[in-house]
Amino acid sequence: MNSQDINENLQQLQQRIANACLKVNREVKEIRLIPVTKTKSVEMIQMAIALGVSHVGENKVQELIGKAEQLQDEKLEWILIGHLQSNKVKKIIQYIQEFHALDSIKLAEKLNKELQYIDKKLDVFIQVNTSNESSKYGIQPERLAGFLNEMQQFEQLNVVGLMTLALHTEDELQIRQCFRLLKKLLDKSRIDYPKISRLSMGMSGDFEIAIEEGATDIRVGQAIFGQRNLPDAYYWPEQGAKS
Ligand SMILES: *Cc1c(COP(=O)(O)O)cnc(C)c1O
């Protein structure tokens, strides 16, 4: 992958995003593309920056910090999109602008406390398990209302949206149902919490369906930076075990 490949991929992606929007009468500017750079080199990220990329998503804490350190002179925002353990909160918070996988009150508590110390606020997405079996991460849909209620006590955390990973399957209908459920949960949540407005859903393999179902933030890696050498099982062990 060189800069020209990445550029072409980004342009193709923009076209596909535009087509998906057109299909359901949405505007392209409603969609934010989050380029996902996990397993990719800092050189590749620098190429992306040169092409206008201003924020990237990473799945793992250690990898994000390592790259952020190397790229600290660049103007780039880091978004943590993967699971976060409480014992890594303190390390990570200075590096990130957003966190897309909040799924426990204990973790929220820890985040809030550590953010207070450094006087920082963080935009968070609540990860919901919409696939009901394959992912051990994310809260169950029926727990969302109670979860959001509890989140109100954490002043450093702005809950801006919901996030999900669709079922790992070829079956488009099943994928669509995951996204549709998240949209339904968002619409319901907004009655009590009007500030919650975003839907982080859709990846290289399913972002068009996600856009059709209301995504505002799509997290796309391989369609921009090429295939990964590491299997997805490294990031979603429980799914890898099944497929
Ligand atoms: C890797 C990853 C993505 C992007 O997946 P691609 O197949 O590379 O588009 C999206 N979301 C999360 C949480 C990820 O870990």
Automatic annotation (TrEMBL):
The keyword Coiled coil applies. Belongs to the pyridoxal phosphate-binding protein YggS/PROSC family. Its cofactor is pyridoxal 5'-phosphate. This is Pyridoxal phosphate homeostasis protein. It comes from Acinetobacter defluvii. The keyword Coiled coil applies. NCBIfam families: YggS family pyridoxal phosphate-dependent enzyme. Residues 3-30 form a coiled coil. The modification N6-(pyridoxal phosphate)lysine is found at residue 38. Transmembrane segments: none annotated. HAMAP family: PLP_homeostasis. GO terms for molecular function: pyridoxal phosphate binding.
